[in-house]
Design brief:
Elements lengths: L73 E10 L2 E11 L4 E5 L6 H8 L9 E9 L2 E2 L7 H7 E4 L10 H11 L6 H14 L3 H4 L12 H13 L5 E5 L7 H14 L4 E5 L3 H7 L2 E6 L2 E7 H6 L4 H7 L5
Parallel strand pairs: 3-8, 3-9, 6-7, 7-8
Antiparallel strand pairs: 1-2, 1-4, 4-5, 9-10
Bound molecules: adenosine-5'-diphosphate and magnesium ion.
Amino acid sequence: MNEEIPEPGRAPEEPQARRGGAAREGNGLGREEDGAPLTRQRADGGLNLKPSGRVSVPEEATQPDGATVENPVFSCRDVNVFYSGKQALKEVSLDVGRRQVLAMIGPSGCGKSTFLRCLNRMNDTIAGARVTGHIHLDGRDIHDESVDVAQLRARIGMVFQKPNPFPKSIYDNVAYGPRIHGLARSRAHLDDIVCSSLTRAGLWEEVKDRLSSPGTGLSGGQQQRLCIARTIAVQPEVILMDEPCSALDPIATARIEDLIDELRESYAIVIVTHSMQQAARVSQRTAYFHLGELIEVGNTDRVFTNPRHRLTEDYITGRFG
Ligand SMILES: Nc1ncnc2c1ncn2[C@@H]1O[C@H](COP(=O)(O)OP(=O)(O)O)[C@@H](O)[C@H]1O
Ligand SMILES: [Mg+2]
C-alpha cells in the first residue's frame, strides 16, 4: 500500500568544516513534499493521541508542517556529527519553534541525543566529537567564536534522563545557577527566584518546609522537578529534555508532562522520548529520526495519524524499533 513512498535515504554530502564556513543552501528541507501523502486515516488500533484528555493546541500555536517554522528560536542546517570519524548525524536541517514542544522520536541510537547536544554545544565536551553545519540561535551562529559557551548553556537549559540534583540542599540546587550567573541582587531576590522557580516546577508546596534538606532525598519525580526548577531559575530560552520521564513512574511522568505543557507557554522545549504516547501528548511538532537522518517532521497529530514515510509509519505502528 505504500509503494509510492520513497525510501528517505539521501547520500550525505561531504561535510563542510564548521565554524565560519560559508553558508550554503539548506538541502534537508521540504521533506514533507518528498513522498506522496498517505490519505488513509489510522483507524486500526492506532495511538490514542490524547489519552489524558488534554486537548490539542489552538490553531495559532501550531506551525505549518515541515522542517522550517516562522521565526524559529533555533535554525539548524545541514548538521552532521561525527564521533571519532564515525558519522552519527547526517545533514539534519530542522527549526525549533518558540513556545511549543518539539518531540524527537526514533529507534535507539538514531541520533536524538546527539542532535539535542548540538543545540547547547554539549558535544564539545565529548572527546572525538565533531560537529559541522550551521546552528543559529535567534539568528546567531552558536559556533561563532564570540559566543560564551557557559552563557549559551544557561540560555539553553538541559534536563537529563536520570534526575541529577547536586549533592546540596533543595534551596542551593535552585540557587546555584542564579548565583554563578549573578542574577540575584540580594538574598531576598534570590529567595524569590528559588520560590518562583520551585513554584513553576510544581514543587514548592511539597518542599517549602524543607528547603535545607538534600535534593537527593526527594523522590525520583520530585528530583526531576527540582532539576527543572534549577533549569528555569536561570531564565533559559529553550529547555532540552532527554527522555526526562524514563526513570519515573506513571504518576510522576504525568506530573512532568503537565509541567511541560505549562512551561511551553514561556519556553521552547525540545524533548527526546521513546514513548510515542508521550510525544503525542506533549508536543506540537514531532521529528522522526532513523540511523542519524531526520526522516520526517511535522505537526504531531499529522505525523501520528498520517505519516508520510514508511519508516515513520513502521516505527509508530510498532513494526520497527
Ligand atoms: N560519546 C559517544 N561516543 C561515540 N559514539 C557515540 C557517542 N554518543 C553516541 N554515539 C553514537 O552515535 C549514535 C547516535 O547515538 P545517540 O545520539 O545517543 O542516539 P539516541 O539518543 O537516538 O539513542 C549511536 O551510534 C551511538 O553509538
Ligand atoms: Mg539518547
